[in-house]
């Protein structure tokens, strides 16, 4: 896919980061928000569906409560987020209304997307909103999201939303012009990268953390988000939110920001859901032969190819398959508990009945329930 293909986009997810929205922590930047909403409204008027993922609840809550530094305790953060979310909703509703559009607040936790039924529910709701011509405004449900059930950053949330509703384009607006060869706030010699494949290994060296004290992940989570988004075939562009008409220009295929080129075609719906799961319950270390058949032949995983079991998991839970070098090769839903897998490591499936006293499936992970990374 090249940038000129963006002009054919039918559905786009726009993610706006905290530091942009709150003008570096000084309260909501109403002027900038009005300009972004106007751009999104004009996309809608052209028949392009827009989903907004907006950060800024904590930052706006801090401004409203007069907090100078980001609270340390989870409860204070959650309290700040609930105060700030009111401000976000109000400003977006007012602005979209001026263009004759309705906005809808959708607050999600990771749990909502890791459970297959709730995932499908969230998807149906979002698609219904789009059909009504509404612009969904999504954020993490910070008031209730504890460590175990949080996405952690809105770049990841934006990518998972792009997967959920099969958007072709994820636009991540931030306080930099895009991805630089190093963090430009530290390295003055850093250069803007205009286009790069999501799987390019140099990305892991270039992308650093956030330093603003307002945002959460820096470029690191944006790169990870682009990789996740690419699993449903979505292209990602990271660009400066302050650039004039930035959203429209990106959709028009203009060479601004960093285009993170997706590397694979879209996965089937169930595999997309699998690929977006963030919490694995355990790991299986594979031998080289198993790595090869999973990667090259798209086969199911059998116990004969497993060397080691790490962690505890139950039947049906998500486990990661790693090579001897520790690289993640695949992940999928396991057919046996960790306790049972330990007993059958390296053994042919025909011996399961004898070793375990029962045999449910001959594969540890069936290829339909597995996604190769
Ligand atoms: N290679 C890089 N290129 C650009 N910015 C980088 C890079 N590495 C780290 N960063 C940092 O990432 C920050 C943007 O991320 P973040 O603060 O999380 O913003 P947002 O609120 O938009 O998500 C930049 O201000 C910059 O300091
Ligand atoms: N849900 C949080 C967003 C945290 C976050 O990821 O922020 P950012 O890095 O600015 O996108 C909030 O609204 O404050």
From TrEMBL:
For the ligand (ATP), the binding residues are 15, 174-175
The record's listing under SMART domains reads: PUA
Q: Which UniProt keywords apply?
A: Amino-acid biosynthesis, ATP-binding, Cytoplasm, Kinase, Nucleotide-binding, Proline biosynthesis, Transferase
What is its EC class?
Answer: transferase
Recorded hits in PROSITE patterns, A to Z, give: GLUTAMATE_5_KINASE (PS00902), PUA (PS50890)
**Which residue range or ranges hold the PUA domain?**
282-365
Q: Where does substrate bind?
A: 55, 142, 154
Which Pfam families does this entry report, sorted A to Z?
AA_kinase (PF00696), PUA (PF01472)
Q: Which GO terms describe its biological process?
A: L-proline biosynthetic process
E.C. designation(s): 2.7.2.11
Q: Which CDD domains match?
A: AAK_G5K_ProB, PUA_G5K
Q: What is its main location?
A: cytoplasm
Q: Where is this protein localized, as stated in its record? A: Cytoplasm
Q: In which pathway does it act?
A: Amino-acid biosynthesis; L-proline biosynthesis; L-glutamate 5-semialdehyde from L-glutamate: step 1/2
Q: Note whether Cytoplasm occurs among the keywords.
A: yes
Cellular component GO terms held in the UniProt record: cytosol
Q: Please list which residues make up the signal peptide.
A: none
Q: Which family does it belong to?
A: Belongs to the glutamate 5-kinase family.
The job of this chain, per UniProt, is described as:
Catalyzes the transfer of a phosphate group to glutamate to form L-glutamate 5-phosphate.
Q: What is the name of the protein in this document? A: Glutamate 5-kinase
Gene, per the UniProt record: proB
């Amino acid at each position: 896919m090249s940038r000129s293909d963006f002009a054919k986009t039918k559905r786009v997810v726009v993610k706006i980061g905290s530091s942009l929205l709150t003008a570096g922590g000084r309260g909501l930047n109403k002027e900038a928000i009005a300009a972004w909403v106007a751009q999104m409204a004009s996309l809608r008027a052209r028949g392009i569906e827009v989903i907004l993922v907006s950060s800024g609840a904590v930052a706006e809550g801090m401004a409203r409560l007069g907090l100078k530094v980001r609270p340390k305790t989870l409860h204070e953060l959650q309290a700040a987020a609930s105060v700030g979310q009111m401000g976000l909703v109000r400003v977006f509703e007012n602005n979209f209304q001026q263009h004759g559009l309705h906005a809808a607040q959708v607050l999600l936790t990771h749990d909502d997307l890791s459970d297959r039924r709730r995932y499908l529910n969230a998807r149906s709701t979002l698609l219904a909103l789009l059909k009504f011509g509404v612009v969904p405004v999504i954020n993490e449900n910070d008031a209730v999201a504890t460590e175990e059930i949080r996405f952690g950053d809105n770049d990841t949330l934006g990518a998972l939303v792009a997967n959920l509703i099969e958007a072709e384009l994820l636009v991540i607006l931030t306080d930099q012009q895009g991805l630089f060869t190093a963090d430009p706030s530290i390295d003055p010699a850093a250069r803007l990268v205009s286009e790069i494949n999501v799987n390019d290994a140099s990305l892991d060296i270039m992308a650093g953390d956030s330093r603003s004290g307002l945002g959460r992940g820096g470029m690191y989570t944006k790169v990870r988000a682009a990789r996740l988004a690419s699993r449903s075939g979505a292209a990602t562009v990271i660009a400066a939110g302050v650039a004039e008409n930035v959203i429209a220009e990106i959709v028009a295929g203009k060479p601004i920001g960093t285009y993170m080129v997706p590397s694979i075609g879209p996965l089937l719906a169930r595999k997309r859901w699998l690929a977006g799961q963030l919490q694995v319950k355990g790991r299986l270390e594979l031998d080289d032969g198993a790595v090869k058949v999973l990667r090259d032949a798209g086969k199911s995983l059998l116990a004969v190819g497993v060397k080691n079991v790490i962690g505890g998991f139950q039947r049906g839970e998500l486990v990661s398959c790693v090579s001897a070098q520790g690289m993640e090769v695949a992940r999928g839903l396991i057919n046996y508990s960790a306790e049972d897998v330990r007993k059958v490591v390296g053994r042919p499936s025909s011996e399961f009945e004898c070793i375990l006293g029962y045999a449910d499936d001959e594969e540890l992970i069936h290829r339909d329930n597995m996604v190769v990374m």
